[in-house]
Amino acid sequence: MSFPERMKGAGEPTYGGTRSQLSKQVIFEQVQSVSQGFYKDKAIDIDSDNANWVVFDEYLLPPRWKGIARSSPLLISFPMEYPSLPPVGFYLRASLPKSANGHMYQAAYHSADKAPLSKNWFWYCVYIDAQNWKPAAIRRSGDWRNGDSLWEYITMINEALQSDD
User: Is residue 131 exposed (0-12), middle (13-18) or buried (19+ Cβ within 10 Å)?
Assistant: First the structure.
């Protein structure tokens, strides 16, 4: 099994603000697709105004987290450049006592969004090197299915949470 490189990517993401209608539509479609295919019958909260973030409530943590927690809310903050740039890390609730592999921090690094930290989230350090993120060229709804998307990011999160690294 190979894991994404944890190296600084090219391009600096920005957070917050009003994104383009197409970017919002892509995020809403991807969240809906992941919800229907992976996260059935669980609560999801999304920034309905600007699609700047999504929270998956009761995100099931892998077996290696046994003894720490069975689940946690998981927050993904989308950079304004999404889907051209991937998210930088993700966030788990600060109420978790520790991480199974030490990658959870009370600070955000590598140009990650710092705003969730003030709302009782810890940042989990894992991300995709920008040169390895290959989203589809998006001209209209549905084009995102032909490249990297939230599906690949959720897969990477699962791999990272299961990793010893």
Answer: exposed
